Amino acid sequence: MPRRYGRPVGVGFSAVLQMASLASPPRRQQQSPVLSRSALKARNALVLEHLPLADALAYATARRLFPLVEREDLIQVAREALVRSAPRCRAGDPPAPYLRRCITGALQHHLRDRVRLVRVPRRLHEQGQCPLGHLSLDASGDGEPCLLDQLASPEPELGSSEAEQQLALEQLVEQLPAAQATALRLTLLEGLSLRAAAERLQISAMSVQRAQKKAIAALRQQLAGGG
To answer: What pTM, to 2 d.p., does this model score?
Structure first.
């Protein structure tokens, strides 16, 4: 049974440190300062402490995108990002949130630049061909009806009784004060949240909620025949 936070075969810590120093481009090697013996020791201790974090982020990404990505590749990317980011942690601040952001960003860049999230045969990929294509909705083939004809028909229009009820509701809303009617229309009829309605009206969300409650109470009173 594999461990959740383990060290996979072939991706050892020493190999990651060596790869991080050799695989970096020349420009980055010139810009990165040389670490002293004490700083190097502190970096290594920080990397060893947060190695389970890097492995956990790599495992989660591999599970989410299986079988499109190789787990060992993601582990290697995550550990390399951990080694590169550890010396940049600020003293006095917790290193885990910063390292998590750096490792996650490195994994996302790797997926964007190196991974084909739609797996196609290697032969077709090398030839520049792809079996996936776009099909028009009104195109038909093999005697099948077109996709446009297979779509669900639109909802039928309201009947006379439903239209009359909606008209009566609109008339009741028109009788409300302007603030209450506007809050009711935006939140219930248009489906906006309290915050979105407040931003449109340039008032607080609490004011919109109070106006909405007053409007609902007034409608209930009118429907109950209380005037």
So the answer is: 0.42
